[in-house]
Amino acid sequence: MGTKTSTRTGSVVFECTLIRYELEAILRRREEEVDTARQNLPGRKHRRREARLAKAAAVAPRPVDKLRPVVRCPTVKYNRRVRAGRGFTIQELKRERVVFQGGLEAYPPFYLDFQEAGIARKLAPTIGIAVDHRRVNACSESLSANVARLKEYRARLILFPRKSGQFKKLDSSAEDIKAALESKNLAKSVGSLLPIANVSRAQAVTEISKADMPEGEKAAYRKLRDARSDARYVGVREKRAKAKAEEAAAAKK
Fold it and tell me: According to its UniProt record, which protein family does this protein belong to (predicted)?
């Protein structure tokens, strides 16, 4: 039961009792902290708003958030919905690869499409693109959708030089930067500029009449039952046919 502890009055209090008292005091303090937080909800709302404005002013003219990919929600129950993922895969960010027909001897090559966005892995986080090296593309649809999202973001992107007047290779031109600053149409949030929209049930479901459905084979159920019987009695029928053949051969003798 633990060691004994004497009090001022000489009574004995076991250690397990002291532990219980300490736990109860901790729980009471936590409840008081939660109650205090709940009582100051308007103040917390104001502080969050002030923090958002301060962050937007500190990172301006950059957006406050990063570009996120479009991913499917997990499990069969929710995989019809899409949401923002953690980051783009390495395959989606790969450099542009030329796909052509006719083999290597075909010159000039016939360009079909660029399979990747052509953004370097180390460059992506520096220009506001989230990267997740653990995520993989399970299908070509997600790959093509996120590559198109990256290309649209890259087309809208205006890169300012880190030091004023010192333009590098990937930076936008001075005319583009001047026009962007004068127009005052710079996006403060990437999510509002490139939103992720779900398809409603009315758009996803299409009514099909009986006339639109293809005409199937007649007596389909009967054919299925016959095929099942053939598979089940194949051995019996072979044995029966073999016995009849032996009887016919014996009768001829």
Answer: Belongs to the eukaryotic ribosomal protein eL13 family.
